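pasting for ref
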Amino acid sequence: MRHRGRHRRRRRGRAVRAFLAGTALALTAAATMISASQATVTDDGPGALKPLALSSGTERMGLTEELVPQADLDRLAAGMGRPVGVGAVLAGADGALRDAAGCSAAEREALPVSPAATRAYCWDAGDTEGWQPGAVTSSGDADDDGIWGTNRVILSGWSRTGGTAADRGLARVAFVNANDLEHLSYTWVLLAVPVDGGRDYRGLVSHVSGMVWYQDKLLVTTDGGDASALYVYDMNRVQRADVTGEAVGRVPGGWSANGSRFVLPAVGSYRLDGAVGTPHPSTVSLDRSTAPDSLVAGEWTLDGGDRAARLWRYPFSTAGGHEGLLATDAGGRARVSEAYRTKVTGVRGVLSYHDEWYVSRAAGDGKRHGVLWRQTTEGAAAAECGDTTESHDCWSGRTESLSYWAETGEVWTQSGRMLFATPLGPLDGPDQ
């Protein structure tokens, strides 16, 4: 199903709103937990965000848009068959997640202490063995009513760490059917990049540490030496892989996707300028509180390092025919509209809403839990774990992205084999 504008999609989502309204009511009591527990600014925290001037210091953070020629995409579709929509992918599930009650104690150790997860699920060990979890996004990002077509969907990114040398680094996304939050099922889709003028494709080789589904586009961070900062995928161009096997691309008898039944070929990318000191966006999220909506980015930093990380944003385009893509100038350049420095080290996920930024810090050496800091230009705060040490190491150990679902007031993320959500409370409230 193609994107037809928010207002029409909002009308289609009304049938699901009654279900979501009940969910939101159930979260009301817990929804203030994080804002209340983060009310005290700590002496040993990162302090306030430092705004960066939009000058030469942020110019090199711009991105150059490079779209795959339409002829290449048409050639690939002609060879593979007509693309399918998200609904078709969800219709034939590869597996199901277990509710937290059915997860092992070891798996549940990945969950935060405070704020506590209000929903939690675990992935099957056999289905994810040799794969590393990464970013999460959802139809809550894709459209403001949280519905894509008639479905609520969560996307969970993974990268290959095991298998043959040729397999390592491959990226895939689980399309999770979230229509029934008591029973989540999913289907694997391999991320790919067209090659040879659309006559073939290769697998995207990257750890999926950042991912945002906005309108009909999916933006995915890249690493591993790829000059591109982000790859762009069209959610209306999912292709079926008709040959089962470990190969990727065109094979005798059809098309293979490393065991997945579906493949999503890129339609474009955003390239860094390559200058020394250019920050690479390792984590991204969506902010609908800006006008226009914006893509928030943060750079990966070492835990315990002494370099301040940068956080910044790019506005999304409002031009016709450029749906789901970043706003660019006449030269195809996407420019930063706001940037900050944070003293948080070990940065993993980042989220912003109005004037508040949420930055997750990875667990330090010998620790199981990290910290989720709330920062503004006036100060910083974090949850206290409720123990006698007044520790702030209450968050999950390694959540590489944060995705806010405005419809229910939940933030979705994952760590280890746990996919979970927690209420973030009134993000637009005053800094305390």
